[in-house]
Specification:
alpha/beta; Rossmann fold; Alpha-Beta Plaits; four-stranded antiparallel beta sheet; 7 helices; 16% strand; globular
Amino acid sequence: MPPLNLGNQPPTTPLDAEQAWRATAGRASDTVFFFDFDGTLAPVDDDPTAVQLAPKVLAAIEALAPLVRRVAIVSARPVEFLRDHLGGLAGVDLYGLYGLEHSHSGGETVTEPAALPWVPTMRELADLARAELPAGALVEFKRLSVALHWRTAPQLGAIVQEWGQAQAVRLGLRVQAGRMVLEIKPPVDRDKGMVIGEVVRDAGGAWYFGDDALRHQGFRGAARPRRCGPGVPRGLRGRGQPGDRPRGRRGRRHDDRLPRRPRRLPHRGGPPPQL
């Protein structure tokens, strides 16, 4: 089956769910699956250190990994956090801190060399944030970045963002806005889209699943290579920012073209398992 996306442009007519899964099943062994962590594999929690995987996620990924080219988790979380929560799944690649760290199939964690000199700066910034930001703001030190959360105190959003932006300018750092969080990170050219673009460069297809504003980096990376088909339809996305689109039943955002999971993928050496 030839690629469905030729060049950098998406199909003029989006695939429906059945077409997308059929195309994926036809080239499963050459397709890469990317998943964000927060809001995709695990529900978002007011306390970012307390999140837990959604039920049956580990079993589903474990069943999927042998059937496809690669499964990768691409997250703003550190690799060690991902490894602890995913239980050392075999055959799954972990990309943490927007790609500043990675670990392939349970191997050692490798850090982007250009980011390492910024670790002391990030530690000092986290200490300063805890001392200067008002109670209710949560400071999360990630070694190579600092996340400033105001999920439990939305009235502090403007104050936290202004403080974070000012510190980034003062220290020569970059900021990444998320859902009720501002991430401050080193001035290193690395993001989710770059990671995904590298991984799918010679793949036959790719799916990316993410739920927040950073999903657009993932979609851009998945759509970049010429041979990446079925790729990711531009309209394919999870629950996003308020106002992104109408809500579905029970208040959940959804895309009617996207089934919750692939029903069958070809299995090497036997009948296809039910996922």
